[in-house]
Known about the structure:
A: alpha+beta; N-terminal domain of TfIIb; 4-stranded antiparallel β-sheet; 31% helix; B: alpha/beta; VC0802-like; Rossmann fold; 15 strands; binds S-adenosylmethionine; Multifunctional methyltransferase subunit trm112 (chain A)
Amino acid sequence: MKVLTLNFLTCAVKTCKSSSDSFPLHPKDAELVSDDVELNPQLLVNLLPRIDWKALRTTSTELGFPELPEQPPTAEELEADEKMLKDLHTLLVETQMNEGKLVCGHCGHEYAVREGIANFLLPSHLV
Amino acid sequence: MDYLVRFSQSHETFRLPELESLAVIEGIVMKSPFCIVHLPSDDAAKRLIRRSILVQSIHALWGSGPDLAAVHAAVHATTPHLWAQYLTCPFKFTIDSYQGSRTAEDKVRIINSFAYLGFAGPIRMRDPDEEFTLFEDWEFNSTPLGIPDPKHYYFGRYLGSGARDLPKVLDLKKRRYISTTSMDAELALVTANIALAAPGKLMYDPFVGTGSFPIACAQFGAVTFGSDIDGRSIRGDEKRKTLRGNFEQYGLLGGLGGMFTADLTNSPIRRADLRYDGDGVTGRLFDGIVCDPPYGVREGLRVLGVRDPEKSPWVIPKGKVMYKDPDFIPPRKPYSFLAMLDDILQFSAQTLVDGGRLSFWMPTANDENQEIAVPTHPYLEVVSVCTQVFNKWSRRLITYRRIPDKEVDPEAMKAREVATPVGKSADELNPFRKAYFNKFETADGSSDDAS
Lengths: 127, 451
Ligand SMILES: C[S@@+](CC[C@H](N)C(=O)[O-])C[C@H]1O[C@@H](n2cnc3c(N)ncnc32)[C@H](O)[C@@H]1O
């Protein structure tokens, strides 16, 4: 599961949806792997408006990556900034979370990640 | 200039929607919706069809008409200024007869009638620089009926071909990991085209199974996401036969964004409430959503939850104790097919960017009285409905476009909120399942298997 995916995932418990603590989920005991992927600036520029930057900063730090700037770059800034493109590509596209857990900061529910596949199925008392 | 698109002979109702979708991807304005299309340039013509699954080839149209005299007249009237470029190059001249045939002598006679073009270069059957084709459109069954001539002729210069080879590349027969409901490669690729999958775009399949749609989308350069309530369908045998293994087989790992186990009705995908003033991107995630939802015919459609907590009071307490166990399987309850379709539409309205597309497959009975209406949503506009017909049932590929918030009618939203169906019994609100079992269950149960 590419780290990008973490920026799209929140706690599946309905009562957590209204809480800002349920996003992003916090990686725990995360085992990371990396795939070699060719850099695609078009993809990163396309991603920019869809990424929740604040959440991405949290995830990046929690996974042990260098701190991201406080504000996201604009599309033009990103296109012109080779280092930023490279860094975001490494973090979002190449890095994968393979094992571990994703933890909700609101209800504490832990979603297991095995072989890169996170499990969001909930028991009946949580649906 | 006019260009002649030569379609392949399969999936007829899908051909134009596919071509029109490719025009959107390439930013090409196509004036006529028919096989003769008006395009800005040869280059646009080649680009238009280069990733088409259902177009064989495209040709600059030099002339057409109901008989050869009319073709020659048109070629004389509009193309003499082009002839000089092709006087000496190696070339080939072919006759492509649709639903009809010609004797070898006839062909030579017809080809010779174009001698005035003055092409004097060497004739090369393999790898010519230029290829000129006379297309003949014959009446159906013309040979046995003894019909002497075609009903129409088109003459053109070959420019390029579609991607008819791609279905072979992704052929299910040679794919590492498939299941009984994997979508065949050709239709998965057509679906990806119609949903506008393209480099740098993000596509999602909420009923991903073995990954047929994400693979097709990734083949066109998109980054793909998927989920399924059945994690085993994604994991496969956890060795070589896995969804990831399929991406690996085709060298598409760069397009594998993320796959996870989830129920669409309890989705972990982040999304905001619908509004009337969004900027069209912020808070939305996907350029396209493609899927083949569960029809619920065999096993009934299920989502997370307990059907009747009073009748089985132990289920919820057991879940509370057991749910952290990695082997715990959460209970499921029956759900209605129509409610699920509605959930897909609502989810898509919330997560697609403006202009993003939802394309999903839906079965329906061939009997008009049992036909399931195309589902609607105020934030989604129907782009096309394509039908693949089987003996007693059909399936349709329905495609929508996410319209900008500002174009949405708030009244339609209000009406929807009042009318939204909520179903409990799997049968009651599943007209397709009912029809399947009552009316068109085949006597021997062998043909027309829906899943
Ligand atoms: C027709 S199959 C799709 C097959 C897929 N297109 C492929 O190529 O393998 C439908 C899938 O939906 C899944 N499904 C059923 N109910 C679901 C639900 N409530 N949420 C998510 N997925 C569900 C099934 O497990 C099944 O894999």
